[in-house]
Each structure stands twice: as C-alpha cells, then as structure tokens.
Amino acid sequence: MFERPAPALAGPQSMGPPFQLWIDAVQMLSVAVLTACLGAVGSAPPTEAAPLDSTRTDKYWIVLADRSPRVSSSADTSWTRPVAPAYLGRLRARGVQPLVRSRWLHAVSARLSPDKRASVAALPFVEETRPVASLRPQGRSYKADPDHPPLEVGAAEGPLSRINALPPLARGLSGHGVHVGFLDANYAGLRHPVFSRLRMNNQLGGLRTFTTGQQGGNHGAGVVSVAAGYEPGSLVGPAYGATVWGATTEFTQFERNVEEDHFVAGLEWLTRRGVDVVNVSIGYTRFDDGQRSYSTDDLDGDTALTTRAVDRAAQQGVTVVVSAGNSGCAAPDDCWFYVNTPADADSAIAVGAIAPDSSVASFSARGPTPDGRRKPDVVVQGQEVPAAWENGGYARVGGTSFASPQVTGIVAQMLQVNPALGPMQVRRLLRRTASQAHAPDSTRGWGIVNAEAAVRHAEWKARRSPPHTLQGSAPHSPPNAHALVLPVSAPAQTATLQATLRTPLGKPVRHIERVGHPGPNRLVLDVDGLAPGRYRYVVTTDQGHEATGSVTISK
User: Fold this and answer.
1) Of the four, 24, 49, 78, 314, which is 20 to 30 A from 527 by CA?
2) What is the pLDDT of residues 439-492, one digit of tens each?
3) pTM, two decimal places
4) What angle, rounded to 10 degrees, do the helices at 404-417 and 219-228 form?
C-alpha cells in the first residue's frame, strides 16, 4: 500500500554538474498518480608523505587489546567499560599523553613522533596504531586511502553525510557479497543508467512479479537506487556492490488484502534465494471498501499477516528494514499517526524520516505500539532524497519509503564486514550507535543513524570472534581502479598478511605484505598493466594459515 506522498520541494532543483534532468518529485508523482509509503568520524586520506621527520608529531589512534574479562560482564556490554587503567598507565610511562579515550573502540588518541609510534606499536597490548583523520569535503569526492580512488557520490552527498555514511564508502565498503532483497511495486526492469554497473557485473540476482495486471510508475526502481544505485557524479548508494533481488508484490491500482498474500509469497521467495537483508518500502493499514482494514489496536507485532511474515524471516536470519509510514501528524486524533504494518513487527527495523535540517518530518509515523514498544527504531533523511526516476533522470523525493533503503544499504555494509551478525544484533548496533541511544523516544526512536559507527562496531565484533582458519571471500574490483580486492577473515594472533597473484603456470606477478589483524581484512593488489586472463591468488598469515583461489582479470 502506498500512502499519500510526503511533501517535497516546491519546484525543480538544480543538482549541479553533471547537468541532468532533476524533476520535482511532487509534480512527477501527481502526474503518475503514484503515492508511496512514501511512506562522524570520517576517514579522509593522510596527505602525501613528506620526508620522515623523527621530531614531528602526528595524531594517532592507539587501539588496545581486549580488556581483562569479568565474570559478571556479558559480551554485549563489555565494550562500554572504561579503557583499561593498566594499559593507560603503561602508555603514560612511555610519555604518551592520551587526548581522547574511546570505551567503544577500547582505544586512545595521542600525538606521537615516528620513533614513539614504533615504540608504542611494539607494546604487547597494542593491536594497532592508525592516523586520526577527519572528514574533509572535497567537492563531492571522498577518499579514505590510496587503495580506493575518490568516489563521486553526487546528489547523495547530503543525505549520506547527514548519517555519517560517507566514510564507509570511502574505505571501499559497498555491500559486496551481500544479497539485498526488495519488496515493492514496479522496478521498470531496473533499466535506468544508475543500474548499469549492477547489470554489467552480474549483480542483478533476479526480479519476479507476484501481482497480476499491468502497472506503471517508478517507485520500486527509485527505492533500489537509493540503496544500491551507482552513477558517479549523480547518485551512489551505500550498497552499490551488493547483489540485488526484487519482488513486485504491490499493485498500485487498488488496495486489497490480496496484496498481503503477495507480500508473504514475495518475502518467502527472497528468503529461499538466500537474501541477507530485505527492504520493505510498503505498508498496510486501510484497504478499499469491502476489504479487511486494520485498527491501531492491531499494531501489536503479532496480528497482521505481513508482520508475522517479517518475524518468520528474521527467525531464518534475514534482517528486514521497513519504512515506518507517512501517516504521522501533530496528534493521534488528527490522523492515523502510528507506524504501519509490518513496521510494527517485533523484529523489524522500522525507519522514520527527518528533514534536511534534522528535524522530524511531519509525515513520519510515530509510536508507540499498542503493546508499549518504541517505534520507529531509527531515523534518516526522508525529505528531498535524490533517487533515479523516469526517462533516465533523477528526482528529489520524499517519504519514509526513501528513508528505509538508506538504512538497508548500511546494513549491507555491516554484513559485508561481519556476515555472522543476526537480525537482532544488526538492529542493536544501529540503535546503540544512533544519536539518542541514551534517551530513545517514540518520535525518533533511538535517533539519527550513525553509519560509520554502526559499521565499525560490526567490524569490531567480527574481530573479537575470529575464525579458527584463514577464510577468503570472493575477490572483486573497486570501481574506477586497476585493483583487485581480496577479502579475508584471519584467525586469532594474526599480525601480518601476504598476498601473491600468480599466472596459471605459477609465475608470481604481484605481491604485497601488510599488517593484518584477527577478523576481517581487505588486501588490495595493484593489477594495472596485467594481461587479461585467469590468475591464482594465495593469501598467507604469519601463523602459517593459507587461503587460495582463482580470479579472472579483464580490462
């Protein structure tokens, strides 16, 4: 079910170069008669290194080993404890003056000379030292390290920067290896130019229609573009490297209970296809005359068919992100007010909307549920959101429909660095790292999403539970770079990683050695100048573990 579209801009908006057609969403939606459920610590690159000066000091994060375990402390709360005093004392004994202490990361920042950095790095309780960087806008480009070229995120810069989602993209995270599903209306075959890379790299898993009859519109394609689109300079979504699946379960010509049946069938199909996260930008409250509609008392997390289906998907390990709905207003007596189904599901991540100035969007649905649970869970920008639209153009659109796919893209990045996370763990990390985690309410939930913090914590959890052997994932190439990324998860005690690329006859053609750590690592090999063809790679650790595989390099 699509609700009335949320108010958007009053006229066409200039997006800046490249000069493409950006059409006002309100005008377009009124023409198409499409209504929708419509409903930082950044990481910038260090500057080019000057000749080494042993007296110069720079600011570094000193990441410390795990705290000593406490019998009464659970794994989920130990990361909130203060930095270990014993470690602080030994650092001060070496002349290190901590500037910032992070409980979450179990790290401190300090100014270190090159010699002192080497001395600190050699301490047995120091896991790594890394430069402290800041988020530095450079037009629309953000660069994290020399392995990844600047990424032109285009008009997505505003919404993504508001939720601190640029740093993970700058570090090369794109949801690669994660399967993302969508339940929506018409996807228009995902033929928009923003999906060209997805098709070229065989990242379109499949599209399936569960409805009958023809329908137009562009809602489904627009939603997917926010999460997984990729057209540098115009629009880049957080999960542009993910594999995409789309189920059409919504028919915009009527509102009947059969759409709930389509929803359940579509969600089961996506689950059978092995998706890791599903975005739901549709919701149900009232249907056409003669159909069964819901009352607000039905939003108990157990009544609606779609709500129960979402909980079933979560039980099978699928994270489900749902738009809260556009039924919000000043008071419950003035409108429906509360979140839709299936956003009321116990296991759903319900996403509300904020305006570009971070105030709550007037249309964003509220909580609590009748059984007293807080909803929404988190909020992101849901007004003036750039999305792919008709005729190869773009529009600034509004509604919680276009808020939830931003969170879905971030979840894909979290699962990229830590595939072991379950749906409840994902939601817990999003909540704990949001802007008002200390004081959640029924308007913003736990607050504005902090993508970088959520992804970092997902990665941190993976490092705390490393595998017993070296495990490799499918290699991939970052966009606009002559490079090969080898994702591996390393066992405990790993300190160094080596990667070698060989021809079919065994001749080594590329080799790197770098500092490694337990859990997820991404090794980047420069493949510029290599002849296209099949190659074999070998990754080894200083502890003798090895992972091998083959990859095809093309021009």
Assistant:
1) 49
2) 999 999 999 999 999 999 999 999 999 999 999 998 988 886 788 999 999 999
3) 0.74
4) 40
